[in-house]
Amino acid sequence: MADSSVKKVVLAYSGGLDTSIILKWLQTTYRCEVVTFTADLGQGEELGPARDKALLLGIKPENIYIEDLREEFVRDYVFPMFRANAAYEGVYLLGTSIARPLIAKKLIEIAEKTGADAVSHGATGKGNDQVRFELTAYALKPDVVVIAPWREWDLRSREQLIAFAEQHQIPIAKNKRGEAPFSVDANLLHASSEGRVLEDPAVEVPDYVYSRTISPEDAPDKPTIVTVSFEKGDAVAIDGEKLSPATLLAKLNDLGRDNGIGRLDLVENRFVGMKSRGMYETPGGTILHAAHRAIESITLDRGAAHLKDQIMPQYAELIYNGFWFSPEREMLQALIDKSQEFVTGDVRLKLYKGGVHVIGRSSDYSLYDQDLVTFEEGAVAYDHRDAAGFIKLNALRLRTLGQRKKKLGL
Q: Which of the residues 76, 183, 265, 337 is marked catalytic?
């Protein structure tokens, strides 16, 4: 039932068929003014048509917002997440998850600016994105009304959506009339594909699904050597060239694409309770993840490194589930950021046929002491004889347990 108190709503609008239908549905169902917001997160699509489509559907020019968020996205969301080496269920680099809090934050900012009392999104009732959008919206504006059309309307099939579009003179591209073979979500960090041809996890992902990477088999036979430089945990340069966060990630994407890097075929556990099979392409992020762990390996103390590894799954799950603006994520972020104080230096990597191989790392803050680890005669800081007492003390409880088992005949 439409909330008659809603007078103005800000819609997360891509300009595609689904969000265009949502736009018209909001106008006809809620009888409200609609403000559109389109975010450029590096998805690789021209955004001018979104403005034209909104104008065609009766949106006032002053109510159309299109913002280039690429630098903010990488600087304030992707990089903080990569400081944590976050990977949901051990492998997924959270490319879709990390984009949602930024989009939702902008929706709320525009709602405040325009005096809107509601926001709306195009996420379905089965997915994680509805949770991510709405948790952020409620965290930043507790009294906001959230309209989720896929949970309200009775348009349950592609045929019904097309019929609604035709009824309201919404232009439909020829390739949008049939059921899409799979759905795609993309930004500067990754592209994700899921649905239909990908729903059977026993069937290999068809070649035509991939959009961000060439096949590893088709990658060059000669490896690419690249150096990534870090300052306080964030990548700042490639091969000595200082780059902005978004420009740096874009360059890593190019290197990853050309070497077939970053493909992931995953069956994941959605927050809403079901398992889902998806195919993710994260070329630059895969390189960055490996490089960051490599620079940490020589600059982080063992205790700090192991603590980070212990909290990482919880941190990654918070992002995946939509709790970016929760106090616990912010608390963990403070701990993670403190750990990056001396994570500065260079990492050399070999990119070859889908693989990212660390071949060198150096830092002015390195804790690696060659004199300590050498098998040759080194510094006097380590006396081999000290190891005997160390081992005996650590073995004390094991020996005690062993004596009890022997006594009991176990």
A: 183
- Is 364 among the residues known to form the active site? no
Arithmetic mean of pLDDT, 122-139: 96
Measured CA to CA, the distance from residue 111 to residue 316 in angstroms comes to 29
Dihedral sign of CA atoms 95, 97, 102, 108 in order: positive
Distance CA 259, CA 217 (A): 9
- Taking only Cα atoms into account, the Rg of the chain, rounded to an integer number of angstroms, comes to 26
Is residue 194 a contact partner of residue 182, using CB atoms and an 8 Å limit?
yes
pLDDT tens track for 82-104: 999 999 999 999 999 999 999 99
pLDDT the model gives residue 18: 92
Catalytic residue status for 100? yes
Based on the residue annotation, tell me whether 18 is a catalytic residue of this protein: yes
Q: In terms of Cα–Cα distance, which of 367, 381, 345 is closest to 301? A: 367
Amino acid at 54: A
Q: Are 162 and 171 in contact (CB under 8 A)?
A: no
68 given a catalytic annotation: no
Kind and range of the H or E element at 222?
none
Render 172-208 in DSSP notation, one character per residue. --GGGSSPPSSEEEE-SS-EEEESGGG--TTSPPPGG
**What pLDDT, on a 0 to 100 scale, did the predictor assign at position 223?**
98
Catalytic residue among 70, 100, 132, 361: 100
Query: Of these residues, 14, 20, 83, 129, which one is catalytic?
Result: 129
Mean pLDDT (the chain, rounded) = 95
Burial of 39: CB neighbours in 10 Å, binned 0-12, 13-18, 19+: buried
